[in-house]
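Late entry, evening session. Most of the bench is empty. Finally got around to the prediction I had been postponing all week. Sequence below, unchanged from the version circulated by S.P.
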Amino acid sequence: MTILEAYETGCRRLRDAEILPADEARATVRIALDHLSGARYAHLARPDRVLTVAEQARWNEWLDQLARGRPLAYLIGERAFLGLNFRCDERALIPRPETELLVEAAVARLKEYSAPRVADLGTGSGAIAIGVAHLLPRAQVWASDVSPGSLSLARENAERLGVAQRLHFVAGENGQWAAPLLGTENGARFDAVLSNPPYIARRGVETLPPQIRDHEPRAALDGGEDGLDDYRRIAAQCDALLNAEGFLMVELGAGQFEAARTIFNAAGWTVEEPLYDLGGVARVLAATR
């Protein structure tokens, strides 16, 4: 089997499986094949190269997994975020491009600080915490998560990406977003508190694409009956984490800004105008005390 034949076979398999739109299916096959062959756009650059027996067996196994809905990032074990390659597996959500907006907005506000202290609540793979540490070389970042597996993965990514010496990992507590981080370094507070909490309404989790619903950690998706439970907790708890001039930023799901603003305003926060992603979704809520 040549690389071009492998590409065409893969496109047919995913088309027949009907789990991805056609364009996304082709991109998925292309990225997987590039990873297998070690060449970018291998189906164009080296279409006639014949796969080894081992490569062909691995390719067939990968196509079986992709056709059953396993996410590409879990299959190849990595996903790019802010230009960094994060290790990915079932211990945490796959980093999304939408979350880059939150990191970039926070960094823009923190870049004049001499040594900013930042908290990342529900760190998952560590994408937010590591992204901030990478872009702000003088930042110290505390990352918490209730999942030991997620914290382990985040530590691995911090080591892999060269920022582990400035990250501090904290075991979280169910329903307690602030408490595990109170009292760090003699009670010092944070210049920024950041989070991408679960925000899918419980009934909506079952309607998610199978790649998400059946493979990514449900606890990191399920935001309660209306998807807003963790915003309520964060709004009620996290003022204690911020210094006088600090700010909070959270990622939102589509259509959630007004409801989230109401929650934060009722808890005494001053909510800024939303930040919109490239799809026009009000994706980030920023608030101060």
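Two things to note before I forget:
The beta strands are 78-81, 84-87, 117-121, 140-145, 167-171, 190-195, 242-251, 270-271, 275-276, 282-288.
The chain has two domains: 3-68, 92-288.
Will write this up properly tomorrow.
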